[in-house]
Amino acid sequence: MNAATTTSPRPRLSGKLLLLAAALTAAVGFLIWTGTQGATVYYHTVGEVRAMDSEAYYRLIRVNGIVADGSIQTSGDGNVINFDLQDDSGRLPVEYRGTPPDLFGYSAEDRYQEVIVEGQLEPSGAFRARSLIVKHGPEFEPREIPAQ
Amino acid sequence: MSDLLYLFIGFSAVWIGIFGYLVYVTGRVRNVRDELHDLRGQLDAPQAGREASSH
Amino acid sequence: MSQVRTSELARPGWLGALRHPGTAALYALLLLSMGLALFMAFIFAPAERVQAEVYRLLFVHVPSAWLAFAAFGVVAVGSVMYLVRGKSRWDRLALASAEIGVLFTTLTLVTGSVWGRSVWGVWWQWDPRLTTTLIMWFIYVSYLALRAYIDDPNARQRMASVLGIVGVVSVPIVWFSVEWWRSLHPTPSVTSPGGGMPREMLTTLMVSVAAFTVFYVVLLRQRMQLELAATELGSLRERLHERNEESA
């Protein structure tokens, strides 16, 4: 009845409490550990994929890079899109079948578009993407630059 | 066009979520207080009331 | 003590609560800040260069996330204070804040998903920011589930306090996830070096955060009052039950 305003310590509970705390700490610790191990990266860079050997073929991976300027080519009723993914190490040719996101191919002047593709690396060195995700950075700009 | 739809869905979800929660909690506060009022009346009632409630 | 307080406030009806000058002022502030935030989000802030209109989700997505972080911080403070002082008031603060934190996290996930569908082209990705946010959501949903599961008030409050303290570790993990690991989600526009936005957008964002903070305070107050009244109701029922048994 007095539970609303006071509490009396119950030694009986400390064991359970300790167990709960231990379990939780373990869970959170595991989270941090798996996250920092690097074994599970969300995506690879173009350079990393280019350096992969035959063991990587046909495994589902994600690659992040910049769409090389002017490399986008569409064919087959616009359902097949070929482009090069680029970083400092070089280019990776990508083929994607499907409908791209609305913002794909958009490029403001002097800006390169960063994308993530999910798919498989083939022995030819090309990447067959089954999904295409447009990345957006943390910068926002007004549509019309106000007249000075 | 579909951009505006996404914008609409997002804003609606937020306002419905927050207001829905506020209305829900406020309604429950009122119900609990009504019930409190009734029970307090029963508890403070004279001897006769107590006998009546035990039947 | 607590009984006196609730009965003082126990005025029936929606409008009855507004007779309390503090409450009336708070609700006025709520309406004012909400109106201003909406006006600024849709009319004052300019359209964006790449995203055009859909970027306006920023003004609900980011405040929801920040307020969720703050709410879970308050859960930790309430939990620590409860364990130190043993006053149920602190536990009520933690509970109320956790529930509202879950609400705001849910809204963050929903608005983020819709925004992601529009800009990224996908509703969901298992990227570090999204994944850790979902884990944070699960931690506080289990906090609420734990509370519902334990009947004994002392045990419930103490167990919940432990979870409320340990759980807050998820907040910095979610915040820094975009800097520690490769992710799809952008780094914070306001604080990270590559980020930025024009003054009009930043002002709008800050006003929106202020409006969400007022909302948080209103919801927190209301939820704490509910818990106080519910606890009192429980003890009153118990007393009545005991007395009826005595007289039977």
Helical residue percent band of chain C:
over 70%
The CATH class of the largest domain in chain A is Mainly Beta
Number of helices of chain A: 2
Oligomer: heterotrimer
Intertermini distance of chain A: 70 Å
The number of domains of chain C is 1
Low-confidence stretches of chain A: 1-11
Measured between the Cα atoms of the first and last residue of chain C, the distance is: 30 Å
Q: How many structurally independent domains of chain A? A: 2
Radius of gyration of chain A: 25 Å
What is the compact description of this entry?
Chain B has 55 residues and is mainly alpha-helical. Chain B has helices spanning 2-44, 47-54.
Walk me through the structure:
The complex is a heterotrimer of chains A (148), B (55) and C (248). Chain A has 2 domains: 11-40; 44-134, OB fold (Dihydrolipoamide Acetyltransferase, E2P), CATH 2.40.50. Helix content of chain A is 19%, strand content 30%. Chain A has helices at residues 14-36, 46-50, and strands at 44-45, 60-67, 73-75, 80-87, 90-97, 114-121, 127-134. In chain A, a hairpin with a 2-residue loop joins strand 4 (80-87) and strand 5. Chain A is extended and about 65 Å long. Chain A starts with 13 loop residues before the first helix and ends in a 14-residue tail after the last strand. In chain B, 93% of the residues lie in helices and 0% in strands. Chain C has 248 residues and is mainly α. Chain C has one domain (21-186, 200-243). Helices cover 76% and strands 0% of the residues of chain C. Chain C has 8 helices and no strands. Chain C has helices spanning 2-9, 21-44, 58-85, 88-119, 128-149, 153-166, 170-180, 199-247. At the A-C interface, helix 1 and strand 7 of A face helix 4, helix 5, helix 6, helix 7 and helix 8 of C.
Outline the fold blueprint.
The complex is a heterotrimer of chains A (148), B (55) and C (248).
Chain A: H1 14-36, E1 44-45, H2 46-50, E2 60-67, E3 73-75, E4 80-87, E5 90-97, E6 114-121, E7 127-134
Parallel strand pairs in A: 1-2, 5-7
Antiparallel strand pairs in A: 2-4, 2-6, 3-4, 4-5, 6-7
Chain B: H1 2-44, H2 47-54
Chain C: H1 2-9, H2 21-44, H3 58-85, H4 88-119, H5 128-149, H6 153-166, H7 170-180, H8 199-247
